[in-house]
Design a protein that fits this description.
Number of domains: 1
Oligomer: single chain
Number of strands: 0
Number of helices: 11
Keywords: Membrane, Transmembrane, Transmembrane helix
Organism: Candidatus Thiodictyon syntrophicum
Protein name: Flippase-like domain-containing protein
Transmembrane segments: 23-41, 61-81, 130-155, 161-181, 201-226, 238-255, 276-301
Distance between the termini: 18 Å
Structural class: mainly alpha
Length: 323
């Protein structure tokens, strides 16, 4: 009974906070875009020099890694849903993830999750399990990136003083979030057996840690593609800085996909000799690489004999009765 009441209170608080978050997002997003456009204009001469000398092979390698990461993305979904007794094929999880990528770029930053949830439901996944999954996915993304990025930045000694304290605290916070994620999600939504054990969950979280390790390397390759860019950070340092800055942007609830926030944090941590503003504008270019990889993955998924429509062949199945 106490667990049920705690879950009800948490859901009530989340509902109350939703309008404020939506308003903040609507106000912040255009301001962030304007700031990035100003940064590009402000550093247009430096950016033009960097782009002209860019190494296309390294840009292609960065894009290829991100394209390959789409094959890893469904593994956390697959393992988590199976841990809750919900059968799901890897192919179905992959197709749902990739075919729904365009929704990722709709205003609001939630529509990729919403579209995937609808497809999971058509695949007869229990609706409470879907809700629990979306929550545990969000918490795990925050926990993994804050821990991996924060601990990495702290351990490599890239920063000192207040930044070092901040990254260390974020790493501790990431661990706390990871340990709490399965309890919170299952307390709120999972009322049936089996339940996900902490050991199962941490193995699943390790899959995401591998994902973000490769994502960081894709970012490092992107930076190396600009020979004229004089960075004090090594490839490993650049990788953990990216993971950390992405995590900070992710937990900044009013910034969809961390736009503006991630670039600002990364530009400060990278220790660029030139203008931080110009570097932030260049780092925004990595979003173009990610966009290109997403478009390529989506186009491949729409080819004949690949994915077709998500949940095809099962959409007509009636949803299961809830227990």
């Amino acid at each position: 009974m106490k667990t049920y009441l705690a879950g009800a209170r948490l859901r009530n608080l989340a509902e109350r906070a939703r309008p404020a978050r939506r308003l903040a997002s609507r106000l912040f997003t255009p301001l962030a875009l304007i700031a990035l456009l100003w940064a590009i204009w402000h550093g247009r001469q430096t950016l033009a020099t960097l782009v002209v000398d860019a190494r296309l092979d390294l840009l292609a390698a960065s894009l290829s890694i991100w394209l390959g990461l789409h094959l890893v993305s469904p593994l956390f979904t697959l393992r988590t849903l199976r841990g809750w007794g919900q059968p799901l094929r890897y192919r179905d999880a992959l197709c749902i993830h990739v075919v729904r990528l365009p929704a990722k770029y709709l205003p609001g930053g939630i529509w990729h999750s919403v579209a995937r949830a609808a497809d999971y439901r058509r695949l007869a996944v229990n609706h409470r399990v879907i809700a629990a999954y979306l929550l545990i996915e969000t918490l795990t993304l925050a926990g993994v990136t804050l821990f991996l990025g924060g601990a990495g930045v702290f351990a490599t000694g890239v920063v000192t003083g207040a930044w070092a304290i901040a990254t260390g605290l974020c790493a501790v916070l990431g661990v706390c979030v990871l340990l709490a994620a399965p309890w919170v999600s299952q307390t709120l939504f999972i009322t049936i057996e089996p339940k996900l054990s902490l050991r199962q969950y941490l193995i699943n979280a390790a899959v995401l840690a591998v994902y973000w390790g490769w994502a960081g390397m894709a970012f490092a390759l992107f930076l190396n593609a600009f020979p004229a860019l004089r960075l004090a950070a090594s490839n490993v340092e650049a990788a953990v800085i990216y993971v950390f800055s992405w995590g900070i942007g992710f937990v900044t609830l009013f910034a969809p996909q961390g736009i503006g926030v991630s670039e600002l944090v990364a530009s400060h941590l990278l220790g660029e000799r030139d203008s931080v503003v110009t570097l932030a504008a260049l780092l925004a270019g990595f979003r173009v690489v990610i966009l290109a990889a997403d478009v390529a993955a989506w186009l491949l998924a729409t080819l004949p004999h690949t994915c077709g429509r998500p949940a095809s062949g099962v959409a007509s199945q009636p949803p299961p009765r809830e227990s």
